[in-house]
Amino acid sequence: MLQTKQKIFRSFYFPVMPVADLQDGPKPFKLMGENIVLWLDDEQKPAAAIDRCCHRTARLSKGELRNGCIVCPYHGWAFNRDGKCTWFPQSELEDPPKVYKIKGYHCEERYGYVWVALDTPIRDIPKFRYSDNPDFRKVDEFYEVIHCAAIRLMENSFDVAHVNFVHKNTFGDLDNPIPPKVTITPNEWGFEAYMEIPVHNKLNQKVQALNMDDERTVRKQLSEWFMPFIRQTNITYPTGLIHSIVTCTAPIDDDTCQLVQFVYRNDREEDVSAKSIIAFDRNVVDEDMDVLETTDSNVSLDLAKKVENHMLSDQPGILMRKMLLELFDKYGEQEMC
């Protein structure tokens, strides 16, 4: 499975850019292999459309704004968020012909990011746990390109067997390599996976990121998968601290994704600084990427048909693949390379 070849993924929302990045004008982005342009309309709401003018195919992202519309840099044609041409200076017509239009996309702002669906969405943007809880703060962590398939990152997020090896320098425990039991509860658009993971607090994590003195502890972890490429991992420590990581990936092409990650925490800046939280999670993400970026982008879903031959720690990833196969079948799409 190559991620951009699955048409049904076009019907999901993906976070593509911090909305603050649009304050100084339109920006380009590539989603599912398609070049799009993003901008803020006259109500300061994000809009998205194909990054090609219908006149002579110039890149609209090199243009500017006029009354909330994107203006082509070539001949000055302006298009609204629905893709309709609202003005072209070469004509005296007050209302340009309806055939003068470009493709507009579904576009929303949520959690400080611009979310885009290329086709009619089959579900809304997920509502994340703690997002409207006043006892939790939000720490924005990472917005960067990663060189692996989105499903690889999703599977890795639920793979408890890799922790003690990939993360041996941050919180893994090589003295206890046997992965814990995982309890999985499926739902319509994904699943929840609960596990209790013994960890070894290293790199001053216990002081800088956790505000605790114990060298070893147990993380109670409830991870949620939102189809196709979003997860929220809610980690509860014995101190009562909750560290809830939201990780989203937007497919750029078959080999790369845009990573968006932020964290909800039930503490305050004076307890643990945002800088310390980001620094520790930076180490963890770098450890994962060092391995994930070596993997093949063409992910076979055949493993979903051989579940009996895999380790128990593979079960979340196997279920993920089975549910994607069911999604393809439901919407009449065959798995394509």
UniProtKB/TrEMBL annotation:
InterPro entries according to UniProt: Cholesterol_7-desaturase (IPR050584), Rieske_2Fe-2S (IPR017941), Rieske_2Fe-2S_sf (IPR036922), VanA_C_cat (IPR044043)
EC number: 1.14.13.-
Ranges where the Rieske domain occurs: 14-116
Any Pfam family matching the protein: Rieske
Keywords per UniProt: 2Fe-2S, Dioxygenase, Iron, Iron-sulfur, Metal-binding, Oxidoreductase
Enzyme class (EC, first level): oxidoreductase
Gene Ontology MF terms in the entry: dioxygenase activity
PANTHER family: BLR4922 PROTEIN (PTHR21266:SF59), IRON-SULFUR DOMAIN CONTAINING PROTEIN (PTHR21266)
Protein name: Aromatic ring-hydroxylating dioxygenase subunit alpha
Biological source species: Paenibacillus filicis
Organism lineage: Bacteria, Bacillati, Bacillota, Bacilli, Bacillales
